[in-house]
Amino acid sequence: MEIVIWIGAAITAAGFAAILWSLLAVLRLRRQGLEDAEMRARLARVVPLNIGALMLSMLGLMMVVVGIILS
């Protein structure tokens, strides 16, 4: 079950990297000083990535916990 823990840790790290990327994308958008409608349109493209990254991190952490419990 050690392999499940390592795979889960790698998936969690990938999800965390995607979360950081989406955070940086939002910070870059805020610095541009766009109009409200344009800002909302661009943020709407970042939100699905953020949600997917959170789900990926959750899946990885679940794999780590399952691997620890089964060890």
Report what the structure shows.
The chain is mainly α and 71 residues long. The chain has one domain. It is 93% helix and 0% strand. It is built from two helices and no strands. α1 packs antiparallel against α2. The longest helix has 35 residues. The chain is rod-shaped. The chain starts with a helix and ends with a helix. The mean pLDDT is 94. Keywords: Membrane, Transmembrane, Transmembrane helix.
Label this structure with key terms.
single chain, 0% strand, transmembrane, mainly alpha, 71 residues, 93% helix, transmembrane helix, membrane
* Helix percent band: over 70%
Number of strands: 0
Major sheet: size, sense and barrel closure?
none
Instruction: Write down the secondary-structure element order.
Output: HH
Radius of gyration (CA) equals: 16 Å
By DSSP (H or I, 4+ residues per run), the number of helices equals 2
The fraction of residues assigned to DSSP E strands is under 5%
Uncertain stretches: none
Overall structural domain count: 1
- Quaternary class: single chain
Distance between the termini: 6 Å
Q: Structural class, from secondary structure content?
A: mainly alpha
Q: Output mean pLDDT.
A: 94
Shape: rod-shaped
